[in-house]
Automatic annotation (TrEMBL):
Family of this protein: Belongs to the Iojap/RsfS family.
Organism of provenance: Lactobacillus gigeriorum DSM 23908 = CRBIP 24.85
Protein name as catalogued: Ribosomal silencing factor RsfS
Matching HAMAP family: Iojap_RsfS
Main localization, broad class: cytoplasm
Amino acid sequence: MTSTEILDFVAKAISDRHGEDTEAYDMRGISVLADYYVVTSAGSNRQLHAIANSIIDEAHQLNYYNYRIEGTRDSNWLLIDLGDVVVNIFTKDAREFYNLEKLWLDGKKVELKED
């Protein structure tokens, strides 16, 4: 599965669970860690976990099992490493606090498909 295909199913899963202010950055040729970085916000801890579960469910439906999740049930930030795509899901306050987007300013902002 290509990194663009992974990005597409991630964007769909986030949209299905109403992630907010979702942004993706194309880091090919800039970062050796991943091709795309995605960040989205959730209105609550419960929604944060629903978004993460939606991404994993979508991956399983596509028979994609190459991922790791960092964070706990009580976390306000979950990271899902899907190989060439890294997804950060935050509560709104945690996203403001960590401001990870500043790390990806050299990347090209990607227009995500809305399903």
